[in-house]
């Protein structure tokens, strides 16, 4: 059954962090894995963490390389995108502009300068807003994190609940219904749904507030987190909180629909897999109440794959913000990314790619660590 | 890998064929097939079916849906029904081509990675990891913007983010069969690596990869139309669905301008998701899971 045990490991999507993790393989005649791991460098969980963090650092470096190469080795001409017709006709102005933006240096030198700047938190200056990209991003990131955070919370609650219901009522009406609904959820074009929701709930029914993050008459809540809802609560401004939450709810639900569908389907299969395990059967035979079995036995092990998928789902949420923020005029990274991409604002595009890539990387790292903490078997892989 | 005989890809593929009739009896698969065939017919016969020229601006502007123009007209006086029908000729073939290319490129790279191992594997899979390190739309958007806004470049951008999924799945499946007796004996008989890959390994891989491709058609169409929506794909006056939804944003009041092209995207994506989902269930459960894990 040892072999089966391995196979019964909950499905775990390969994350970007999977690569390169050398298995702990003791040499011939070595004692079993656990003592070997201990001897080689402390607690297995610590070794696991170090390995994951090293991988993440390597990938982060890869991300800087990709964003740099992508925005430099391609035919789009930033000069043409940023200078007017008259300025383009004057070689002196063009040369001056290229020199100002470091575009006259060889590519590898540009990359080294870029890396050097990164270590100081310098992402360059946006060619459109003429402000440091890091400043722009600092302004826009909290809005997107608030939106994506709200969406992932909704998705987790609804997705897991739907998935459990579908698994417990397998092949009956609720299961079939949820299957169709979750398939529809992953099939709807997000940008179109955003438009429809805005039209129906704001324009026709007038039950949700319009675009933006908060009613302009109230002003933004003073605070440190940059998350309007949290800041309003911290400041004790109930009116701002209600307004901010009202503005948040429609875009967050639109954004969440895809991930709700995804999580429903994953939770269903994860729960079904656990339900078939011997220990669940044993718990049932012992006569434990259904609720105890569900929460203490089934959900706990089903949680591992669900958390992993939630980490990946966050990536699709970050993607979705680009499409949703435009409709709801949500002042986040998505809109900024779109504007800088269409104007070929290289430093801004690089900054967005880098920051979003790193955010995604960190979330997957957290997921990996949680995974190792929840399921001890993973650390030894 | 438990290496038990049931996990054998050949059996999985035979199982798929044997169980196909059963899968086709499922209502979801039937609905999906009907929708997909319907759209293919529309795409093929658009010039015969469409009541108007999709580019002609000779109708009253922003007329609400009604007799004469069932889906209404847009801000330039074009018939939306005709544009949606012609849009099928833009989006569906491009999406199919896109997925076919991803399967080809990703599958080939993944097969090489799994079969040859070592540095080939490392190089290809680390490249795939890097693509996976970005949220798809962000990366596709950066690529499309950098290449310049055009439909062809949008296709290229989606291709860049789509191939790694196939590379991972194919690699995993190839790793599963690489060490099996029939592959080894083939090599011992003197097959070249290429022939061994083609004759012994690939047939064991195609079934699951094709199911993944069916599921991926929807994702690819969503991404492609999303890029067009952002203005990074099809250029006006092309009747591309994503771009049509974007033009509907400008005339917010006239709901029909954006609604119908959006419904077109939804129904096509839904058709292939219904089909792919049923096909996946018909597959061997273990291979099915491998696909699901990587199809994100």
From TrEMBL, chain A:
GO MF entries:
dipeptide transmembrane transporter activity
Stretches with biased composition (Pro residues): 25-34
UniProt main location, coarse: membrane
The UniProt entry, under InterPro entries, shows: BPD_transp_1_N, MetI-like, MetI-like_sf
Q: How does it sit in the membrane?
A: Multi-pass membrane protein
User: What are its GO cellular component terms?
Assistant: plasma membrane
Q: Which UniProt keywords apply?
A: Cell membrane, Membrane, Transmembrane, Transmembrane helix, Transport
Chain segments carrying region Disordered: 1-39
Q: Which residues cross the membrane?
A: 48-70, 147-168, 180-202, 240-263, 303-328, 348-374
The organism's place on the tree of life at top rank = Bacteria
Spell out the subcellular localization from the entry. Answer: Cell membrane
Limits of the ABC transmembrane type-1 domain: 141-371
Protein family per UniProt:
Belongs to the binding-protein-dependent transport system permease family.
Query: What's the protein name?
Result: Peptide/nickel transport system permease protein
Organism of derivation: Nonomuraea pusilla
UniProtKB/TrEMBL annotation, chain B:
Per UniProt, subcellular location reads as: Cell membrane
Q: Might you name a Gene Ontology BP term for this protein? A: transmembrane transport
SUPFAM superfamilies, per database record: MetI-like
Q: Which residues form the ABC transmembrane type-1 domain?
A: 92-276
Q: What is its main location?
A: membrane
Q: How is it placed in the membrane, per its record?
A: Multi-pass membrane protein
Q: Which residues cross the membrane?
A: 28-50, 92-116, 137-162, 209-234, 254-276
Q: Which UniProt keywords apply?
A: Cell membrane, Membrane, Transmembrane, Transmembrane helix, Transport
Under the heading Gene3D superfamilies, the entry gives:
MetI-like
GO CC terms for this protein? plasma membrane
Query: What family name appears in the similarity comment?
Result: Belongs to the binding-protein-dependent transport system permease family.
- According to UniProt, the name of this protein is Peptide/nickel transport system permease protein
């Amino acid at each position: 059954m040892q072999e089966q045990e391995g196979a019964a490991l909950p499905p775990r999507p390969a994350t970007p962090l999977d690569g390169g993790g050398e298995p702990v393989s003791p040499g011939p005649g070595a004692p079993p894995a656990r003592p070997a791991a201990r001897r080689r460098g402390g607690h297995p969980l610590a070794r696991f963490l170090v390995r994951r963090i090293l991988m993440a650092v390597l990938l982060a470096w890869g991300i800087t390389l990709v964003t740099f190469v992508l925005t430099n080795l391609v035919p789009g001409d930033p000069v043409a995108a940023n200078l007017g017709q008259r300025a383009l006709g004057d070689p002196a102005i063009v040369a001056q502009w290229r020199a100002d933006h470091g575009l006259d240096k060889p590519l590898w030198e540009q990359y080294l300068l870029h890396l050097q700047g990164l270590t100081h938190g310098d992402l360059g200056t946006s060619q459109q807003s003429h402000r440091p990209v890091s400043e722009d991003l600092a302004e826009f990131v909290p809005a997107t994190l608030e939106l994506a955070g709200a969406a992932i919370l909704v998705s987790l609650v609804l997705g897991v609940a739907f998935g459990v219901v579908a698994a417990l009522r397998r092949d009956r009406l609720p299961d079939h219904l949820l299957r169709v609904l979750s398939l529809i959820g992953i099939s709807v074009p997000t940008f179109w749904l955003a438009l429809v929701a805005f039209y129906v709930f704001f324009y026709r029914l007038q039950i949700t507030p319009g675009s933006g993050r908060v009613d302009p008459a109230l002003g933004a809540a003073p605070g440190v987190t940059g998350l309007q809802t949290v800041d309003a609560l911290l400041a004790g401004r109930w009116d701002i909180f209600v307004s901010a939450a009202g503005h948040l709810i429609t875009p967050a639900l639109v954004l969440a629909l895809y991930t709700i569908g995804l999580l429903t389907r994953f939770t269903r299969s994860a729960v079904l897999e656990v339900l078939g395990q011997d220990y669940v059967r044993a718990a049932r035979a012992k006569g434990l109440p259904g609720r105890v079995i569900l929460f203490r036995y089934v959900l706990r092990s089903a949680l591992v794959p669900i958390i992993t998928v939630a980490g990946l789902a966050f990536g699709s949420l970050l993607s979705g913000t680009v499409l949703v923020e435009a409709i709801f005029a949500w002042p986040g990274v998505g809109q900024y990314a779109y504007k800088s991409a269409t104007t070929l604002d290289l430093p801004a595009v690089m900054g967005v790619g880098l920051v979003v890539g790193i955010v995604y990387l960190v979330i997957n790292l957290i997921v990996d660590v949680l995974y190792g903490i929840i399921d001890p078997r993973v650390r030894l892989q | 890998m438990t290496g038990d005989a049931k996990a054998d890809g050949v059996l999985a593929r035979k199982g798929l064929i044997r169980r196909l009739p059963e899968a086709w009896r499922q209502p979801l698969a039937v609905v999906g097939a009907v929708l997909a065939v319907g759209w293919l017919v529309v795409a093929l016969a658009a010039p015969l079916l469409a009541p108007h020229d999709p580019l002609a601006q000779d109708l009253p502007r922003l007329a609400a849906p009604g007799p004469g123009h069932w889906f209404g007209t847009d801000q330039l006086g074009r018939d939306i029904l005709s544009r949606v029908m012609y849009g099928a000729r833009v989006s569906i073939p491009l999406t199919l081509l896109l997925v076919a290319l991803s399967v080809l490129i990703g599958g080939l790279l993944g097969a090489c990675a799994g079969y040859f191992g070592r540095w080939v594997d490392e190089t290809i899979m680390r490249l795939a990891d890097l693509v996976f390190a970005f949220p798809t739309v962000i990366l596709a958007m950066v690529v499309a913007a950098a290449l310049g806004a055009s439909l062809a470049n949008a296709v290229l951008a989606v291709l860049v983010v789509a191939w790694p999924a196939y590379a991972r799945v194919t690699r995993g499946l190839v790793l599963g069969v690489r060490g099996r007796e029939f592959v080894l004996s083939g090599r011992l008989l003197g097959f070249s690596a290429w022939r061994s890959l083609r004759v012994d390994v690939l047939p064991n891989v195609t079934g699951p990869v094709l199911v993944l491709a069916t599921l991926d058609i929807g994702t690819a169409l969503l991404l492609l139309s999303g890029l067009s929506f952002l203005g990074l794909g099809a250029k006006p006056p092309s009747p591309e669905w994503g771009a049509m939804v974007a033009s509907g944003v400008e005339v917010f009041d006239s709901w029909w301008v954006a609604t119908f092209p959006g419904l077109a995207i939804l129904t096509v994506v839904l058709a292939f998701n219904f089909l792919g989902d049923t096909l996946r269930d018909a597959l061997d459960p273990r291979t099915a899971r491998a696909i699901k894990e990587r199809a994100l």
